[in-house]
Amino acid sequence: MSLQPDSTPDTDTGTFNNQEHPKTNNLFKESFLRILKSKTSVIGLCIIIILLLTALLAPLIATHSPTDQSIVNRYQPPSVDHWLGTDELGRDIFSRIVFGTRISIQIGVIAVGISMIVGVTLGSIAGYFGRWIDMIIMRVIDIMLAFPSVLLAIALVTILGPSLRNAMIAVGIVGVPQFARLVRSSVLSVKETEYIEASKAIGARNLRTLFGHILPNCLAPIIVQMTLGIGTAILDAAGLSFLGLGAQPPTPEWGAMLSDGRAALQNAPWVVAFPGVAIFLFVLGFNLFGDGLRDALDPKLKD
Amino acid sequence: MTPLLEVNHLKKHFPLKNQELFSREKPVLKAVDGISLSVNTGETLGLVGESGCGKSTAGRLMLKLLEPTEGEIYFKGQDITSVQGEQLRKLRQDMQIIFQDPYASLNPRKTIEKTIMEPMKIFNVPKSERQKKLDHLLDVVGLSPQHKERYPHEFSGGQRQRIGIARALALDPELVICDEPVSALDVSIQAQVINLMEELQDEFNLTYVFIAHDLSVVYHISDRVAVMYLGELVEIGDVHEVYNNPQHPYTQALLSAVPEANPDHERERILLTGDLPSPANPPTGCKFHTRCPIAQNICHAEAPRYKRVSENGQMAACHFAKEVVAQGT
């Protein structure tokens, strides 16, 4: 029976890699099918897909340039030419929202990426090594949690200087505590399982145990937190831009658009309303999908 | 001949959290409270006792998966009690463990190929050799090579335990601690796994410390047996001697509870009264006196010493065990 693998050692490893993927996919396929069963998360998924397509195809969808000004056409109500009207500088709001999708997705992904990398690292170190390391890391996290998140983000941007990049960094840092606490608690529970003891028994070093055995078993809550975190990140970043601490003009960022239009709220409500709706849809989409994902990945629901 | 593994007065006390304010004494749970035994190369030592008597803790102490509070551990004549870090990691090649729960002891996110290969990867076994070794291991534990890309959840309990065994044998260890390896399996599967373990012992020249609470399983596989009660050894000796002629009242009670196949055989059942005392607050003197059918005043006051109760080295810790004077001493 040992003849078969010996005769073709190279192709054997090749087929192993090929066959591994469907197996890993099976786990995700299973959860994906479970997501499709819930109507709300399907709605969330649809919104996300539409937003992604919009961001990808922005130049094709937009009817005007997002930054071209036309003073003659300022504060135009929605019409055939300007689907969602124009703002104080006569820019087409529909086109600005379409291009703003790119910025919002960028903010969401980068900010959550920062939170995830820093939070997972801190949380897993705290949970795995325990003792004084845990004590120090978690007290720092507690201090961060003591500030309201927007306030902390404002403080950070004030230190770093207002710009879209710094807003993303600030929103990312503000999201760290959620990840750190979540990962720490998952690591604590996985750490006690027998297969972690087994990895110790076969002589695995700490890093191998942590990254090879513990973290892969904490993936589900991390993925859920990332999806839910994108919505919050967008909201926080829009808040910063609204205050003039994030995206700078003429960047078509939704929060900044809200801020620009608020002076004319009574005469030209569409300037504020449509970016608001865009933010609302974006956050709603990710939250619905994140909730569905959490339910689908919850091990208690598995048979 | 130096024994493969020897432990002397091994103790493990777990600190308990609920310490009273201002009290000086820290409450501890005495999971293992001074056991001494030795395991010779190639033999199987059965370690039995009821739940919570410290069997598993003792097994983990021998492997240094837990740090002993007191006592010494010698492996191949070398003191490994205070070995740490990289040196301890090297030692892991020679001593392995098979876990009780085959559902919990395999990482659900790793294919069985990765699981069995991992110890070889850690100890830098050349790649070509790894593949060969993997196929050989799968073969000896009775799994098919096409199983290797599957995940643990696709296997039954017995198959998983075979995977656990293959992982433990991947580095050709000398000592394998078997922590109740069959108690989570169906009876029919138990026999298969036990027989497999016996075959592997011959093929790989293994020494087993076999932890179990099933006395008939231990009788079947062990050469010698050690009986534990509340963190202490109460009796140790050749398995036939201990089973046929138990000297400690606790061993007698345990053995009288083993069901017999012959319905006509009238047997005297020794029923123990009371519960197992808490290892956080064990009784004074002989720890067994609270439940012992033959306890006297001396048992409250004085802990019994180990008495040699047979010519072949059977030892029992009871005030009333008959001592045999060894010839020539």
TrEMBL record, chain A:
GO terms under biological process: transmembrane transport
InterPro entries: ABC_transport_permease, BP-dependent_transpt_permease, MetI-like, MetI-like_sf, OppC_N
Superkingdom of the organism of origin: Bacteria
Topology relative to the membrane: Multi-pass membrane protein
Location in or out of the cell: Cell membrane
Region (Disordered): 1-22
Cellular component per GO, a single term: plasma membrane
SUPFAM superfamilies in alphabetical order: MetI-like (SSF161098)
TM region(s), chain numbering: 42-62, 103-129, 141-161, 218-247, 267-290
PROSITE patterns in UniProt: ABC_TM1
Keywords: Cell membrane, Membrane, Transmembrane, Transmembrane helix, Transport
Protein's UniProt keywords contain Transmembrane: yes
Annotated ranges, domain ABC transmembrane type-1: 101-290
Family matches, as Pfam families: BPD_transp_1, OppC_N
Family of the protein in this entry: Belongs to the binding-protein-dependent transport system permease family. OppBC subfamily.
Protein name: ABC transporter permease
Species: Lentibacillus salicampi
From TrEMBL, chain B:
Record keyword ATP-binding present: yes
Keywords: ATP-binding, Nucleotide-binding, Transport
Cross-referenced SUPFAM superfamilies: P-loop containing nucleoside triphosphate hydrolases
Tagged with keyword Zinc: no
SMART domains associated with the record: AAA (SM00382)
Pfam families: ABC_tran, oligo_HPY
GO molecular function, one term: ATP binding
Family: Belongs to the ABC transporter superfamily.
Protein name: Dipeptide ABC transporter ATP-binding protein
Species of provenance: Lentibacillus salicampi
